Amino acid sequence: MSALHARIDRVRVDGRDLIHDIDLDIPQSRWTAIVGPNGAGKSTLLRAIAGLQRCDGSVQLAGRPLADWPSRERARHLAWMGQQETGADDLTAQDVVQLGRLPHRPWLAAPTAADHAAVQAAMQATQSWAWRERRLGSLSGGERQRVLLARALAVEAPLTLMDEPLAHLDPPHQAEWMALVRARVAAGHSVVSVLHELHLALQADHLVLMADGRIVHAGSPADAATHEALKRVFGPSLHIAQIEGRWVALPL
Ligand SMILES: Nc1ncnc2c1ncn2[C@@H]1O[C@H](COP(=O)(O)OP(=O)(O)OP(=O)(O)O)[C@@H](O)[C@H]1O
């Protein structure tokens, strides 16, 4: 069974189809990267499969229509990390990460020892524990991103969707993010990330390429067909080569 399967005829906003003719399969216990040029529809697709954007079509989460999931159960199953999230700037970093635990406890109940442990583990994993008492609004872009990543990890959901999680992260923290994703996948979780960093997307298990509101290719990042599709979309100047056994993409 897929972690998620979506058939979306269209997402229409203000009389314009932002994405259309989508048939997306997210494999279980794998890391899927979604790539494509600016405006290709990646964020719209991610929001639609998370149930955050109305669409014409169907989304099956673990074989069950998304709309049939009770909201709290769905929030435990599907964790979300959006792009440039605002609204929690006055909360401490620790309280922001604690929000990820809300689906795990009854309405208005205090956090349990398990909630505190999950928050601490997630913040230590993203190296954000040191500034747990600081307000989110006082953190740098990269520090903030690591707190939001910790919030998504603290949900301990089988499926995590992340929109540009590497924005603002320096190369060592990008590498740490990849190690975190790998650890989650090894533990049986599924991860989907929209990425602009093609060299990192090529390390994923499965790559989905979008252009002009459609999925134009889906396959293994190691396949020649995937490399050809990337060159068709990003232009022939994109050079894809192997360095020390890893695929990299460079505009040359
Ligand atoms: N609420 C909206 N109303 C109108 N147009 C929108 C809306 N949201 C997105 N769009 C448009 O839909 C298209 C796809 O946007 P989307 O954010 O999904 O692209 P993207 O691939 O994630 O882009 P980027 O790489 O630049 O983040 C763009 O042309 C964008 O301007």
Automatic annotation (TrEMBL):
Its Gene Ontology molecular function terms? ATP binding
The keyword Transport appears for this protein: yes
**Residue span, ABC transporter domain:** 3-237
Q: Supply the SUPFAM superfamilies for this chain.
A: P-loop containing nucleoside triphosphate hydrolases
Q: Does the keyword Translocase apply?
A: yes
Alphabetical list of PROSITE patterns matching this protein: ABC_TRANSPORTER_1 (PS00211), ABC_TRANSPORTER_2 (PS50893)
Domain of life of the organism in this record?
A: Bacteria
Q: What does this protein do?
A: Part of the ABC transporter complex HmuTUV involved in hemin import. Responsible for energy coupling to the transport system.
Protein name as catalogued: Iron complex transport system ATP-binding protein
Q: Which organism is it from?
A: Pelomonas aquatica
